[in-house]
Write a structure and sequence with these properties.
Length: 234
C-alpha cells in the first residue's frame, strides 16, 4: 500500500467512526461515569490523541491533493505542510499514541471502571473501544514504516509533549473545579504533590516513547534519514 492510499484510508476510517459516534444515543443513560463520557468527551486524553491523528492524516491528504496542482502554486505550501506534519507526528502523535494505548489497557486490566465502565458496553458496540484505544497503535506504527520522518531534537519534542500534557492537566483541573466532575476516579484521590508527580512521570514516559519512535524510524529507514538539525541519524 502506498502512502497516499494509506493516508486516505485512515482518514476515511476515522471519519466513519466520527459519524458513528455522533449518532450514538446516550440520552437515557443513568450511570454517572457514562454521563461524564457523554457530557465531557472532548476533555478526555483519548479524544485529544484521536483528534491529533485525524488532523495529521487529514493534512497529509491535503498535501497529496496539492501534488496535482500547478508546481508554482503548491510547492511552497506543500513544503510548509510537510514540515508541520512531520513535527506533529514525531513529537506528539507517535509518543502520545503509545502512552494512551498502553496506559489504557494496563488500567483496563487492573480495573476497567477507572477508565471504561461496563455500563458503556450497553451503549456502544465492542469494536468501539478498540477503535479508540487499540487500532491507533498499529496505525501509528504503519505510518512510521510507510513514510519517512525526520525526528526533531529530543529536547524540542519533549518540551512540546510537556506543554501538551500540561494543557491537558489544566483542562482536567478546570472540569473538576468548575463542574465538580472527576474525569478519572483517581484524580480526586491525589493531592497536589501527587498530581505533580503523576504529570512528571507521564512526561517522562512520553519522552521515552518519543525516543523509541526515533529508534524505530532509524531501524526502518537507516542512514537515508537525516534529522531536522542536519545531523545524520546513526
Amino acid at each position: 500500500m502506498s502512502c497516499p492510499q494509506f493516508h486516505f484510508a485512515v482518514v476515511g476510517y476515522y471519519i466513519a467512526t466520527l459519524v458513528y459516534v455522533s449518532g450514538m444515543d446516550l440520552s437515557n443513560v443513568t450511570d454517572e461515569k457514562v454521563k461524564n463520557l457523554r457530557d465531557f468527551g472532548p476533555f478526555y486524553l483519548t479524544l485529544w490523541n484521536w483528534g491529533l491523528h485525524l488532523l495529521y492524516f487529514f493534512m497529509h491528504c491535503i498535501n497529496h491533493t496539492l501534488q496535482k496542482m500547478p508546481m508554482k502554486i503548491s510547492t511552497s505550501l506543500r513544503r510548509m505542510m510537510g514540515q508541520m506534519t512531520n513535527y506533529l507526528f514525531c513529537a506528539l502523535v507517535f509518543p502520545l499514541t503509545i502512552y494512551v494505548s498502553s496506559t489504557f489497557w494496563i488500567m483496563f486490566a487492573y480495573d476497567r471502571e477507572l477508565l471504561y465502565p461496563r455500563a458503556l458496553d450497553a451503549a456502544s458496540p465492542p469494536w468501539f473501544n478498540h477503535v479508540m484505544h487499540t487500532s491507533i497503535l498499529p496505525v501509528a506504527l504503519l505510518e512510521l514504516a510507510l513514510h519517512r520522518h525526520r525526528f526533531p531534537p529530543p529536547r524540542t519534542a519533549c518540551l512540546s509533549l510537556a506543554a501538551l500534557l500540561a494543557a491537558y492537566g489544566l483542562a482536567m483541573t478546570y472540569v473538576y473545579f468548575r463542574y465538580n466532575v472527576a474525569l478519572y476516579p483517581l484524580y480526586p484521590m491525589l493531592n497536589w504533590t501527587q498530581r505533580g508527580l503523576f504529570f512528571a512521570v507521564s512526561v517522562a514516559e512520553c519522552s521515552v516513547f518519543y525516543l523509541l519512535g526515533e529508534k524505530l524510524n532509524t531501524l526502518c529507514w537507516g542512514n537515508r534519514i537525516k534529522s531536522v538539525h542536519g545531523e545524520k541519524q546513526q
